[in-house]
């Protein structure tokens, strides 16, 4: 069924408003969102790049910009062909040009869902166990274009108490952007900030960094011992961001790449683990309709 759905989804590219450019490509360019250091991101995706080169018969280049906006602008400018975006980053692209990319696949959790959470956390020895304990303290967020690292917390956290506001110096002593999920995790673990938010599926064991997400990647990299950290807040479920393809790509390239990523977990579980940031069931088809609420939330924040 996955293969049938993926093939059907890829075929719909032929009838989208943006006509595919059937000029043969000479290279394929994959953008990788921030979240961990650039070299680790490149290492996690190198296997996918190798499979892509083999499948398409052209060189594959990986790009790991310093921030989310680098990938967003690369897609908008046509200098990137594919990326796995967070829902907010996808919304940012969509709101600037609704036709430039097509969402094709989404990561599936071990329970079959495709949601995750923004997780607030602190050091276990800090005495911080809730948002109320953070009054007057430094709260870290990853990137302004991150769904779990800023957009959703900025909406949901102020709903946790009438006195709580996201303005720096109002309730929290400082609201600070760290630059990415890994930076937030490292800063909290080192005691440089009092608490932070990051993303995780929220399934599995806390000690493992859950099954997938930034905490799992940090544990795998030896950056943290989860016994030193404690969860202090959890968002409502967030739709996992989509793998997107540049709409103007030749139709056969879009079909091949959709099928490649869709079948990655079955073909090479270790590669899929690195690309999906932990344990998953791989990727399944997805459409824009799954992200309408995130688009509206992002639009509302910008007004």
TrEMBL record:
The keyword Lyase does not apply. It comes from the Bacteria. InterPro entries: PhnD, Phosphnate-bd. The keyword Cytoplasm does not apply. Residues 1-20 form the signal peptide. SUPFAM superfamilies: Periplasmic binding protein-like II. Keywords: Signal. Belongs to the phosphate/phosphite/phosphonate binding protein family. PANTHER family: PHOSPHONATES-BINDING PERIPLASMIC PROTEIN (PTHR35841:SF1). This is Phosphonate ABC transporter substrate-binding protein. It comes from Pseudosulfitobacter koreensis.
